[in-house]
Design goal:
This protein has 200 residues and is an alpha/beta fold. 52% of the residues lie in helices and 14% in strands.
Amino acid sequence: ENASQALRAELAIPLSASVIGYVGRLSPIKGLDYLVDAFAQIRSSRPEAYLLLVGPVLGYQENFARLQQQVNELGISKYVVFLLDQRDTPAAFQIMDLVVLPSIVPEGLGLVILEGLASGKPVIATNHGGPVEILTGCAAGRLVPPRDAKALAETVEEILSLSAERRQALSVEARCWAVKRFGIERMMGELVNVYNMVLD
């Protein structure tokens, strides 16, 4: 709790702000330009909203520069925060109201989705690849079409508009889903099943 409050202060994100978060590489395939466009739409109805993008630049300096330019052109640079140092990822999850993974190509399992759910956060992801397997049937998960900023904005808005009680319920559901579906007991059980099949 203290770490997340300290991080919020360090990033100059007000306590009253709604924080939409992303964690991962700043790669072009992650669809962050669509998330930025969606955020610009969200800000028109939610002036208290912030977008927190957490992840290393690595070899993606060009895409990072493009994102910064896009943010500047949309006039939202004060409300889009890049956290390029990933040591504070657990604290970053805590200050997010929800986690978005807007990848434009199908990806694998998506550990970030599991981390988000385990942190008690609703997760919005694009409806292809691993996220479909993880989030289908999860009350705290939403799937949207890739490359669709409007659908993304509407889905974020839907979650942010929920009552405090409903959001608290989603938080509990998110944690339970992450543990039930992908806890260590299940992973070990499935691994044992694979070995048994091979040995048979």
